[in-house]
Amino acid sequence: MTKTHARLTPLAESLPATVPFVGPETQERARGRAFAARLGANENTFGPSPNAISAMQATAGDVWMYGDPENFDLRHALADHHGIAPESILVGEGIDGILGYLVRLLIGPGDTVVTSQGAYPTFNYHVAGFGGVLETVPYKNDHEDPVALIAKAVEVGAKLVYIANPDNPMGTWHDTETIQRMIDAVPEGCLLVLDEAYIEFAPEGTAPALNTDDPRVIRMRTFSKAYGMAGARVGYAIGQADLITAFNKIRNHFGMCRMSQAGALAALKDQEYLSQVVANVAEARARIDQIARAGGLTTLPSATNFVAVDCGQDAAFAKAVLDELIALDVFVRMPFAAPQNRCIRISAGRPEELDTFAAALPKALASARK
Fold first, then answer.
1. Strand order across the 89-92 sheet
2. Cβ contact 289:326 at 8 Å
3. How buried is 369 (Cβ within 10 angstroms: 0-12 exposed, 13-18 middle, 19+ buried)?
4. What digits encode the pLDDT tens for the residues 106-119?
5. What is the CA radius of gyration of the chain?
6. How far apart, in whole angstroms, are the C-alpha atoms of residue 284 and residue 277?
7. Which residues are CB-contacts of 367 (< 8 A; sequence separation ≥ 6)?
8. Residue 153 has pLDDT above 50, yes or no
9. Residues 239, 85: contact at Cβ < 8 Å?
């Protein structure tokens, strides 16, 4: 096999040339046709605020300019929205991009990082990419386990410990008191990465109060989920000002598109539309539960814009159901690790998308049960 002329680092040479997710577009190209229902990527198919669309359209003519490298207007609007100082907010290319910057800042070869087995794989991808060592703990009752995560962090001397609340891929969540106890227990020299991508869908009492004086935690938020702007790639981190300032050492200062900045600013101002989307998603979650139960399945309670449907058997059966749904033009995904991979994960889509899922699921189950 001919090797590249470029001399990769030993670390890069050792890594697989893969990414955590195979996109639906890749699957469509392989299948030779489009999906009828795109319900596998936790996208908000209700879409962004019309005001956000208008703002991006109005800014399209200015796309010859770089975006403001300080994200000044958006950071200050977010600061006003959350009642915190703008110096405690970092805007970046989605939570994925910010996680990459964070790992680059804090993790070198051999440094230890703790996460849950089967939790968000893009975080693990960044850790591997900078030579970190991952230590995992299992889920407990389909929830990430804050006590076990902290215990493992203490045991291995971790520099980072990651938890998503609400969780991806299960949709479950912990209350404010549980997460605050976790923050209070973070060991010296460790940082808690609290991924709150789905927090707008969660019930009151899920997120602890924002305390930007606390150096033990950095919190991740996004415009990809409730705000319906996954393709615009706008995320932000909230943390202690010194840590947020440190990102300026290594971040891509022109990483944010001017149109994305304008769209996010308009979306943030339209909280009425956001409230309607949250209500629509709640209705869709209830519909997914009804569809699943009609097929003899159960669902997990969800505080996100997706539902984990328990297929009631093992991973092989869940994978068979998933494969049949894909063959019937319904794009879905499933968790990565046992025993959570007994489930499939369905995004809370529009009524017509869920009609397609409702028609396909009985056929997929019948085929899988054979």
1. 89-92, 235-238, 217-222, 191-195, 160-164, 112-116, 133-137
2. no
3. exposed
4. 999 999 999 999 99
5. 21
6. 10
7. 320, 324
8. yes
9. no
